Amino acid sequence: MHLETPIKTVSKSSKEVFDFLSDIKNFEKLMPENISKFEILNENRFLFALKGMPEIVLQKKQETPNSQVVLGAASENLPFTLTADIKEIDANQSEVSLSFEGDFNPMMAMMIKSPITNFIGTLSDNLSKL
User: Fold this and answer.
1) What is the domain range of residue 87?
2) Angle at 78 between CA 29 and CA 6, to 5 degrees
3) Does an H or E element contain 69, and which?
4) What sign does the dihedral 9-11-16-21 (CA atoms) show?
5) pLDDT at 40
């Protein structure tokens, strides 16, 4: 399953956006209002839960300085990645898009498509407000 957010313009340089997203504690600032739990597990891993959803542990999987941050599920039971692609427009602006890639059976994909689309949309919207 592949989902993408529209490209958002952020009033920060690509380095500032990359540095922000590379520090996982900053993801708490991007979370939807219906978050019920957010906990830093270590410098590369955090746990979060939205009301009515199970807890999810995300960890930093890969980084490309100033252009990409990839987070992935810490559990092999739900294999997915969340990728932030960053493109600099100028010294004070960049474009960011988020993409979700998961390997789910059709029934699971149907159940989670709407909540995941809303979730990454909220992350993207909140990122554009930085």
Assistant:
1) 2-128
2) 50
3) strand 68-73
4) negative
5) 97
SS3 129: coil
Please state whether the predicted TM-score (pTM) of the whole model is above 0.90.
yes
The full DSSP string for 101-128 is EE---HHHHHHHHHHHHHHHHHHHHHHH
User: How many domains does the structure of the chain reveal?
Assistant: 1
Q: Which residues of 74-87 are buried (b: 16+ CB within 10 A; e: fewer)?
A: beeebebbbbbbbe
| pLDDT tens, residue by residue, 53-74 | 788 999 999 999 999 999 999 8
CATH number at residue 38: 3.30.530.20
Tokens 């597990």 belong to: 41
Handedness of CA 23, 35, 123, 114 (dihedral sign): positive
